[in-house]
Amino acid sequence: MYSNSPAAKYGLKVNDVILEINGKRVTSAGAFIGELAAKKIGETVNLKVASNGKEKNISMKLEAFNYSQQQTRTQ
Questions:
Q1: Whether pLDDT at 25 is above 60
Q2: Which of 49, 40, 39 shows the shortest CA–CA distance to 8?
Q3: H or E segment at 44?
Q4: Theoretical Cys-Cys bridge with 6: which of 28, 40, 53, 63, CB 3.0 to 4.6 Å?
Q5: 3-state SS assignment for residue 29
Q6: Over 90: is that where the pLDDT of 38 sits?
């Protein structure tokens, strides 16, 4: 995860597991990506995330992010 990414901005961390997106259970990375691909930049998605043994809900507005220009990842 990149420290200045939209995901980090909304509180997602390395090793967090996304359980649901907009109330739909995430069963694979492909299913999650498919749900995201159906959305547009500026739309809001609601995630249920497992983080450090606890579940939390995150509402995040989708933003553009250029991963190819990033060099530092959070470990």
A1: yes
A2: 49
A3: strand 44-51
A4: 63
A5: helix
A6: yes
